[in-house]
Design goal:
alpha/beta, Nucleotidyltransferase, domain 5, 6 helices, 5 strands
Length: 203
């Protein structure tokens, strides 16, 4: 089937045909809400409180870092999990965002199975979760950009078992206190916490 010319290739694997409209191999997350249902104001980054979430994998696919980035400010929080299961990832997200729950209105994830616990996350934080379209990383551009910055400190060939909580906190602080041109050279920390302080004054 498909001939035998592939045997002469340096990488001897038959190329499998991809069919349009085929199923995503990772499956569908139950009760997912598509990004197409997300408000236009979130897309415009009009208000603080809307996050993007992802996981960064280490060498040999051991351990993972959960990254959460607020869209308007670029403020980020990170956490390491020993296994990329929905239980551990959900627990890490809830732990990191609970102190910021007043500014955790929505979270947008990709379609990884580690985000299957999105309903528990929403129940715990009072948030609404959305899922980006498959193979559309640009729909979570803030998170993708942050992950690239994170990789400057933790390259892909490093085993995440060697990354300490103290190191993660150092990286998180450096990136959150780094002035951004799109913020008028304010830092993500300044923009995010100014919004957080407004909430505190009203309550």
């Amino acid at each position: 089937m498909g001939g035998h010319l592939w045997r002469s290739l340096r990488c001897q694997k038959q190329k499998r045909k991809r069919y349009a409209g085929g199923h995503d191999r990772r499956g569908q997350t139950p009760d997912r809400c598509s990004i197409t249902e997300r408000s236009e104001s979130i897309e415009r980054r009009a208000h603080v409180g809307h996050w993007e979430g992802d996981t960064v994998i280490g060498a040999a696919h051991q351990h993972a870092i959960v990254t959460l980035v607020e869209r308007k400010s670029g403020y980020a929080v990170v956490a390491k999990v020993h296994r990329k299961t929905s239980e551990q990832v959900s627990a890490a997200i809830i732990k990191r965002l609970t102190p910021l729950a007043s500014r955790a209105k929505t979270i947008t994830f990709d379609n990884g199975k580690e985000f299957a616990g999105h309903k528990l996350i929403d129940q715990s934080l009072g948030s609404t979760t959305y899922f980006a379209d498959p193979f559309a990383s640009w729909q979570r551009g803030s998170n993708e950009n942050f992950n690239g910055l994170l990789r400057q400190y933790i390259p892909k060939n490093r085993h995440l078992s060697t990354v300490t909580d103290g190191e993660l906190k150092m990286i998180e602080d450096r990136l959150n206190y780094r002035p951004r041109k799109r913020l008028g050279f304010k830092t993500p920390h300044q923009v995010f916490h100014k919004s957080l302080n407004r909430v505190a004054l009203r309550t």
